[in-house]
Write a structure and sequence with these properties.
By secondary structure, the protein is an alpha+beta fold. 41% of the residues lie in helices and 19% in strands. Helix 5 (165-176) crosses helix 7 and helix 7 (224-235) crosses helix 9. Bound molecules: zinc ion.
Length: 292
Amino acid sequence: MPAIDVWSVSGESWAVYYPVVYLKSMPTRNRIRSTHALVLRRHDINDADRVLTVLTPRDGKLELIAKGVRKTNSRKAGHLELFVHASLLVAQARTWDMITEVQTVESFRHLRNDLDAIAAASYVCELVDSFAESGDEVQPVWDLVLSVLRELDAGVVRHELPANLLRWFDLQLLSLTGFQPQLFHCLVCERLLEPMLNFINLYDGGVLCPDCGGRHNDAEPLDADTLKVLRFLQRQPWTVVSQVRVRSPVMRRVESLLQRYLIIVLERQLRSTLFLRRLASIPVRLEVDTGE
Ligand SMILES: [Zn+2]
């Protein structure tokens, strides 16, 4: 064992070294923990296994292996579909920690029958996947994602998916992950912004007053209605936002700004290039408000 030679040379005693070897070689299969998890992504490996990327409230994003889950008689399979909120027992292992027991907590079964709701849920999971880190406690993000999936599920039952939900989600997630755009004070002179034509600089993550905005090449005009809606979505809970209708041209400008802001933030973080490509493939709309 070459490691022992190194320790002998450095003069350390065997009495110190030996327990370390012993601890490292102890079987790890007994280290089992329980967690709630939401399945964000998955890919198949080996003949019958699947690696799942899940969000957990206490440990952030984790990659776990579900052994044998693709066998036709697997009892775990139905509990580990995308967007399932499950309760797991996880055993610690060398590469991927392993799912040993699973129970469905919420299946969001209505959502699964509606293509628009599936697309929306996929967007939510991919965006969270892009922002979440492993090892972080993410209880507020967890609560947000679960609440959005519940709204989508209930929307399918009502035959009406909630308008503005995904844009509200964008702004809430940006705030929870530390990328909240500054929408109330000028980024440069810190003056309180007035309800007039201001400017927005997506690269610096906020709004500029007319004086400062006119002097910055990266800033683009931002009309008062769009700013008002952005602030509203950033500050208000869903119970309030869900009661309000926003004119579609304004909502399209909000969507365009948020998509481009997310692309800038995520590119800077070098994460989720696949999702970035998907975001970027959505045409950016730069329309003038016709007062419709
Ligand atoms: Zn200013």
